[in-house]
Specification:
Blueprint (H helix, E strand, L loop, with lengths): L10 H17 L1 H11 L32 E5 L5 E3 L1 H6 L3 E8 L5 E11 H8 L7 E6 L5 E5 H4 L4 E7 L2 E2 L9 E4 L11 E7 L30
Parallel strand pairs: 1-10
Antiparallel strand pairs: 1-2, 3-4, 4-7, 5-6, 5-10, 7-8, 7-9
Helix pairs in contact: 1-2
């Protein structure tokens, strides 16, 4: 999921919210307001519950300020470390796809259009070491991290995204550059991407350390869905 605003919410609470979130979407705004009213006194959960028909904006650290030079550094077990500006990323061959964005808390935004550099292309550009087995992602908020296996990271539907819905990725959506892991729940799609680090092992991310699944496939246990065109 996108990052959460306020106090961390444990996995058991989030799983309990799944049915409530789906019910809110199904019966409309009236039920959603009631669910939000019930949960809002508890750890700020009213800000975590799904909105009807749109995104929720979360942050694990509160207000996030963009750096003056928001480069995405690719380093670790690579031959040619490099810091990519948003302009450099936009100048590289672009991959476009349209996918539903699914949050583990139950809300979904259908048919979101994304564009950016397919992560396999960026990894090829820096030259991945034979020792690398995983990729770790760091947000420039200083707190949020995520990881994929190298095999997962080489899927064509994993993007270093610079465009969303036909325009730049906005700050609240994790811009100017964010990760999109299209076949997994939204918490794997790290916002405010600042660093991509090639590592020997998978490092559990911010939410995995709080009980979430490391492999977060949506709908299918093996994650083998259609690649983008």
């Amino acid at each position: 999921m996108d990052e959460e605003r306020g106090a961390p919410v444990g996995r058991r609470v989030v799983l309990a919210m799944l049915g409530l979130g789906a019910a809110g979407v199904a019966v409309g705004a009236t039920a959603q307001r009631e669910v939000t009213r019930v949960f809002s006194p508890v750890n700020g959960l009213g800000d975590v519950l799904p909105a009807v028909g749109g995104f929720r904006f979360y942050s694990v650290v509160g207000t996030v300020r963009a750096p003056r030079d928001p480069r995405v550094r690719v380093d670790g077990l690579v031959a040619r470390p490099h810091g990519y500006s948003p302009g450099e990323l936009a100048a590289l061959p672009q991959t476009r796809l349209r996918r539903d964005f699914q949050c583990v808390t139950g809300w979904r935004v259908p048919h979101v259009e994304w564009a950016g550099v397919a992560l396999p292309d960026l990894l090829d550009a820096v030259g991945v070491s034979p020792r690398a087995r995983a990729v770790r992602f760091h947000s420039f908020d200083g707190a949020y991290t995520e990881s994929l296996t190298l095999e997962q990271a080489r899927r064509r539907d994993v993007l270093v995204a610079t465009s969303m819905q036909g325009g730049p990725v906005g700050h609240d959506h994790g811009g100017p550059v964010r990760l999109l892991v299209a076949p997994m729940y939204g918490y794997k799609s790290l916002k405010w991407l600042g660093r991509i680090e090639l590592t020997e092992t998978v490092h559990p991310g911010y939410w995995e350390e709080r009980g979430y699944d490391v492999d977060a496939w949506v709908g299918r246990s093996n994650g083998r869905d259609d690649a983008p065109t």
